[in-house]
Design a protein that fits this description.
Ferritin-like_SF; Ferritin; 182 residues
Length: 182
């Protein structure tokens, strides 16, 4: 069967039918920025791996809602890793190999959430430093990426802290004695 523009239901793909891939940068990549991207990739993969481990531990403790939240966090970190890899490739580089920090054990939800809080703070510190460098260096596209990642990590940290507050409140509610007016 051959294509005919008069064929019922036939549609020619337009320019928007195919994803646009950013063109590779033609200027030499800045080694400092590539260093930030490489460290960010390692931290994002480490955080994603840690959150998946916390999800599994939470499932074993029958804390299913927290397990689901950890999986969501892990997926967000892997999306960040995807953005970072895209940026590296746009600068003509490939990830050199990430060094992952091992997932830490947690015997209860407070330990799990505190360990996640620590991972988020490390990412926030890196993105703050990287954003400052890119602003000073005039690397606009890198600055936009690091600022976006910084905002998303700050949002994730706030979520983790909210879950921790909710967990403490639920413990307080469970420990209050039942009072009777009789």
């Amino acid at each position: 069967m051959r294509y005919s523009p008069r064929m019922p239901g036939s549609v020619m793909p337009g320019a928007g039918a195919y994803p646009q891939v950013p063109q590779a940068q033609t200027v030499a990549a800045n080694s400092q920025i590539l260093g930030y991207l490489g460290r960010a990739l390692s931290l994002e993969f480490s955080a994603g791996q840690h959150y998946l481990a916390q999800a599994s531990l939470a499932k074993f403790r029958q804390e299913i809602a927290y397990a689901e939240n950890f999986v969501i966090l892990a997926n967000e970190e892997f999306q960040h890793a995807n953005l970072i890899t895209d940026r590296m490739v746009a600068q003509g580089a490939l990830p050199a190999g990430s060094i992952l920090r091992p997932a830490g054990p947690a015997t209860n939800m407070v330990e799990a959430l505190r360990s996640c809080e620590e991972r988020e703070v490390a990412l926030i510190q890196l993105y703050s430093e990287a954003s400052q460098y890119c602003a000073n260096f005039g690397a606009h596209e890198d600055l936009m990426l690091f600022n976006r990642l910084l905002e998303e990590e700050q949002s994730q940290l706030m979520r983790v802290q909210t879950w921790l507050d909710e967990y403490y409140r639920s413990l307080t509610m469970q420990q209050q004695p039942h009072r009777s007016f009789v």
